[in-house]
């Protein structure tokens, strides 16, 4: 369990924002044991000083890598296009820069390029970076 903020080292509020009891470890990659029926309590906490909201447990080993549903249906694409359009309009982002942290294979960046914004992506996964630099993905 983490007892101090990862950002500033400050203390958390005494009461978690939400506590999820008996969550399956394997569903989130938290599994450290052979058995699939191990559980853990997950607490979403907030720092008293900087306000950062975070889990009070160690991150999964792949936390820097983007994992998304690989389904690429027309319906999913249309939903994503509509959501990004709404996001740009709601926050008045036309003619502005957008940075996607954890841009995966660049699928959202390709969609954002269709709007009147300048978009950039940051990605940790070497596989995703290689796919993008070779024109794939």
Can you give me a brief rundown of this structure?
23% of the residues lie in helices and 20% in strands. The chain is α+β, with helices and mostly antiparallel strands.
Question: How would you describe this protein?
Answer:
By secondary structure, the chain is α+β, with helices and mostly antiparallel strands. The protein folds into two domains: 1-61; 74-133, no CATH class. The protein is built from three helices and five strands. The chain has helices at residues 74-90, 107-112, 126-133, and strands spanning 18-24, 39-46, 53-55, 97-101, 118-122. The chain has a three-stranded antiparallel β-sheet with strand order 1-2-3, with no helix packed on it. The protein has a two-stranded parallel sheet with strand order 4-5. Helix 2 (107-112) links the parallel strand 4 and strand 5 (118-122). It is globular, with a radius of gyration of 19 Å. The protein starts with 17 loop residues before the first strand and ends with a helix.
Strand order of the largest sheet: 1-2-3
Strand content: 15-25%
- Number of H- or I-type helical stretches: 3
Helix/strand order, N-terminal first: EEEHEHEH
Topology of this structure?
Elements (H helix, E strand, L loop, with lengths): L17 E7 L14 E8 L6 E3 L18 H17 L6 E5 L5 H6 L5 E5 L3 H8 L4
Parallel strand pairs: 4-5
Antiparallel strand pairs: 1-2, 2-3
Descriptive tags:
single chain, 137 residues, alpha+beta, 3 helices, globular
